[in-house]
Amino acid sequence: MNRKLSLTLSTFVLVFLSLPFISLASNPIDKNIVDKTTQVLTAQYPDANQQLLKRGIAHAASLWRSTDGSETEFTKFCKDNYVASATDKEMLFNKLTHYFESLFGHFNKISLDMQENVHLQSGKLLPIDHVFAGYSAGAHMMSDLYNNKVAFTVALNFPYFSTEEKIAKGKNWTSLQWGYARMGDVFSSRVPASVGQNNARISAQSGAYIAEYNIYMGHLLNDKKQTLFPEDMVLLSHWNLRDEIKANYANKKNGLDKQAMIYKVMQRIVDQSIPKKVINSKDYEWNPFTNKTTQNGQSVELKAENDGRYQQILNNFKALSAADEYNPVLNTAIKRAFDEEMQIPQETVEQLFHEFLSSPVLGDVAKIIKKRLGRKLQPWDIWYDGFKARSSISEENLNGITETKYPDAKALETDLENLLLKLGFTAEKAQFLASKIAVDPARGSGHAWGASMKSEKAHLRTRIPKSGMNYKGYNIAIHEFGHNVEQTISLHDVDNYMLNGVPNTAFTEALAFVFQERDLFLLDMKDNNPNKEYLKTLDIFWSLFEIMGVSMVDMKMWKWMYANPNATAVQLRDQVLVITKEVWNQYFAPVFGVKDQTILGIYSHMINSPMYLPNYAFGHLIHFQLEEHFKTHKLAPEVERIFALGLLTPNLWMMKAVGTPLSNDPILKAAQEAVDHIKK
Ligand SMILES: [Zn+2]
Hints:
The chain is mainly α. The longest helix has about 35 residues, at about 85-120. It starts with 8 loop residues before the first helix and ends with a helix. The protein has helices at about 10-15, 30-45, 50-65, 70-80, 85-120, 125-135, 140-145, 150-155, 165-170, 175-185, 195-210, 240-245, 255-270, 310-320, 335-340, 345-355, 360-375, 395-405, 410-420, 425-435, 470-490, 505-515, 520, 530-565, 570-590, 605-610, 615-630, 635-640, 650-660, 665-680, and strands spanning about 215, 235, 285, 290-295, 300, 435-440, 445-450, 460. The structure holds zinc ion (ZN).
């Protein structure tokens, strides 16, 4: 997990926006005034790059509201603030980055401080701690930057480029030109505060809807009126339900029956035939196969949930699409999720996933699973969990080592430099990186929170019990350490501050995976199970099959909502059933030998994290591309070089990093090798 994501520039734009509501984007400066202003400035600066000048004026005009001044004042503002000379423009850029680093860096530091007691093991929490944890000191920053016209100076001189334009032109840009383009991203749109607030409210509602979607497993009955699960077992949809399916692969007694029952519950959630009153309640006994309910042995008719799940999705669609008209270029929530957040156009993501999902290797892996299970595949085997190889070293043994080595957070912090040396970093680099990472004892499972200014440290939060750090905790801490190293290199070593970071969240995950893979090596240990690597590859490969499938459903659903903006929740429900079956029949039915399954619609992310799902797949794809590269290149110097590339587009970053664009090839190749090895 990585928290820096929540603090990237684009998120500043979305979250910290707080502007008075002014009706409509149609308010901006009239086209005639834009043309007139362009003529005035062209006459004034005949040698300036006319295309950039035109673009800057048009972008500033699209953000200007009547409260910012009259049309005459707009023209005057442009005349007074346009910087024509390249030297002066670079000076303006350097000054802006200096101020932005201070603003973003300090607000990030304030957020860390406000949430410190809630995140760290610092003793008893008082209600006041939660008040400050929820307080956003930077909430008015963006609105202030419009009021003092900084936003317009930026928009005029560093106009916004769309992701398509960045992809097309960025190859030939210098890092300074890239910095200018990233400066332009800071003020790409001006969405009224009310739209953002409504969005936050709807998002909180759908979060609450999902948080209370529990199934009381001890109250499920099969056709023989038997309960299969413990009375007190309560599972949250979909995570716990899925994990219970996974856990039952080891149960030879009635694992299959339990899995079939959970699967039926999931189907009824997706198609909404689930009785509303069995959700989050133990008042009734429910047979998910017949859909009959009883209370104290008496049969009771209960109403189906019907469309509640899809109403939540529609609410999100309406809240998010309300921002469309204020985004001159990124005028759909789909474009903002893909072009802005992921920096990859949606079509490219879909094409890449289509290629993976069509791979013949999936069929080969399915055959291995069938053999291991000794039965035909069932649709829930998208969650097959049997590739987890047992390590040749016992967990007890490992716990003993990590508990002694790391009794507390300080012990890990002191050892960071040594760990970096082992990975091959030079003494100087190891010392510098370690000096920029603080290790804190976390209340929860931990995370990595990067700095946003060079004078601050990145934070590695890890949970350490009184008995010392156990192996599981250590394994996660090494993952977070990878994030911290990325955060530190990509802040300090990029060519300018506006380039700090990585193209999207998947890129930092990839380095976290690279570190995590080397956790035993860092303990001077080696696993001697020869199959372990191969099984691990197959495990990731099979989980990518599933996650790309659910991502496909999510993307197709959003496209359909945009094509049918007035659809009702019932119509959306029916369409999602169509989409899930289409995706299943195209990619899964040939592998599983069964048609028309709706299970790819079960993910709760579809309700409370719109269009986030594709991110999960990319972390693994990039990880395999990097590991392929590290087979022939030294790790540490390459990590230093690659993660200093900064905030380019994903494909350009990959090209500069490993010489190929984002690709399925390394994982497909590794999976094929694993199949060949396991079959032997
Ligand atoms: Zn992570």
